[in-house]
Specification:
By secondary structure, the protein is mainly α. It has two domains: 1-161, no CATH class; 164-239. Helices cover 71% and strands 0% of the residues. It has twelve helices and no strands.
């Protein structure tokens, strides 16, 4: 078993980080090679909202295939990235928390895919349609495939990340960093933060597109409160001084 982070030297800690990062990059590169063979169908799917795009230089079309392949490799590597991140923080966890790796990786991947899919199916088409709607008879769009796909990829990735809120809350709750009371008291600030995030991420300034992210994100915030209330219940009992001798073994940090 690994020792606690406090027992690890600074160099050892950096070496562990380097090892995890190498594994993450290797996974992305290998899966990107596989993704290259599916790049064209992915490009066709992403450009549906605009119908037709153009490449402005001889190398742009090929560059787009490489970027989409890397994007596909990144998406496909989400379980690996979550697992490696979890393994990196394992030395600082309690023994019963280490066993949560499977549900954290599973639900982390699931929520990421839900957020990405939601963006791809609903937010992206509506936002692009709105923006193109500013064109006129004398102002017609000629959209660069490279710029458009970079924009669309960023949108899909960003939605996937923000939909990880319940998983992050679960982890912070188990670690005793937050409680459901903390989240409940901060609800008014969370609403403002959610609206700011929605305004920054959504592709258009119209309130409809922003609400398409803000609505689900606020729902996930409420889910996080309930989740932390029950999964963080043991730590809250300890905070108020209630003994629980039966859990002494379960809350023993990993020893070297």
């Amino acid at each position: 078993m690994a020792g606690s982070i406090a027992e690890m030297g600074f160099i050892e800690h950096l070496e562990e980080l380097r090892k995890r990062l190498i594994r993450c990059v290797t996974s992305i590169l290998l899966l990107s090679i596989v993704g290259y063979f599916f790049a064209q169908p992915m490009i066709d799917s992403l450009i549906k909202p605009v119908g037709e795009v153009y490449f402005m230089s001889p190398t742009e079309a090929f560059g787009v295939r490489i970027k989409i392949s890397l994007f596909a490799g990144l998406i496909a590597s989400i379980p690996v990235l979550l697992y490696q991140a979890w393994k990196f923080v394992v030395p600082g966890l309690y023994s019963h928390e280490v066993k949560l790796v499977v549900p954290v990786v599973f639900f982390g991947t699931l929520f990421f895919l839900i957020g990405s899919t939601f963006c791809f199916l609903f937010v992206l088409p509506v936002g692009v349609k709105f923006l193109i709607g500013f064109g006129t008879e004398n102002l017609k769009p000629m959209i660069s495939v490279g710029k458009y796909l970079s924009f669309a990829s960023w949108m899909v990735l960003a939605f996937g990340v923000v939909f990880e809120l319940p998983v992050v809350s679960f982890f912070l709750g188990k670690a005793g960093i937050i409680t459901h009371r903390t989240l409940s008291k901060g609800r008014r600030y969370a609403i403002v933060g959610i609206l700011l995030v929605a305004g920054a991420i959504t592709p258009s300034p119209d309130i409809f597109s922003q609400l398409m992210l803000a609505g689900p994100l606020y729902f996930l915030f409420e889910v996080s409160i309930v989740l932390v209330k029950y999964t963080g219940k043991h730590r809250e009992r300890k905070d108020v001084g209630v003994d629980d001798d039966d859990d002494d073994d379960a809350t023993t940090p990993l020893a070297g």
